[in-house]
Structures are given as C-alpha cells and as structure tokens.
Amino acid sequence: MYKVKVTDNFSSAHNLREYEGNCEKLHGHNWQIEVSLKGEELDELGMLVDFRELKKEVKNILNTLDHTYLNDHEYFSRVNPTSENIAHFIYKKLKSRFKDRMDSVTVWESNNSSAEYYE
What we know:
Pfam families: PTPS. Its cofactor is Zn(2+). GO terms for molecular function: 6-carboxytetrahydropterin synthase activity; metal ion binding. Its EC number is 4.-.-.-. The chain is an alpha+beta fold. The protein has one domain: 2-Layer Sandwich (Tetrahydropterin Synthase, Chain A). The chain is built from 2 helices and 5 strands; from the N terminus they run ββαβαββ. Strands 3-1-2-4-5 form a 5-stranded mixed sheet. Helix 1 packs across helix 2. The protein is elongated and about 50 Å long. It starts with a strand and ends with a strand.
C-alpha cells in the first residue's frame, strides 16, 4: 500500500453557532490542511498521483475558503464551521476527483488542535 500527503493552508474567520464559550464569538485561524491519498497500484511513472495535480485540486478548494467568513459560505451556512466539518467538506470535494484513492483530510486550527475525516 502506498500513501502520499500534501499540506496547504488558508486563513479565515468563523464563529461556532450555539456554542457556549469563546468560540461562539467571531474569531479567526490560520488553518493548516493535510490531505492523504492511498492506493496499492502506481502508474507507469511509479506515482500514486502527481503531487502537482493533487496540490492544484487542494488549492482550488482552499481558495473558496481563504480570507472569508466561513459562516457565509454556502455549505457552512447550513453546517457549523467546526474543524471536523471543514475536514469533511474538503474530503468530499476531493473524493469527487480522486475517488477510491482518498484516505483522509486533517485540519489543524492551531499547532496543537486538529480534526481528521476519513471513510
């Protein structure tokens, strides 16, 4: 089994609806994202996936979130913009492109707090 990972980041603001505590207030993060793909077979060049292709797809998704108020985003207007839900959102977007090679998406909201989504 092979696994490849890329990381990227974006900055945005959000507040957690119906949360009792500081995170209910408007605040922001410099989010760090890690995307992991897996597979048993490599292509004719010996790659699971071209890093350039994966980075491009990740960047396209993160560009829709970067320097925004997440609560105004179409998806997060219905779903609380928690780290868990951000990981789920990114995973589902990438799964439509990378299908059965998707492994996981980890979202770091600080140096010591992260959430991971996988199926």
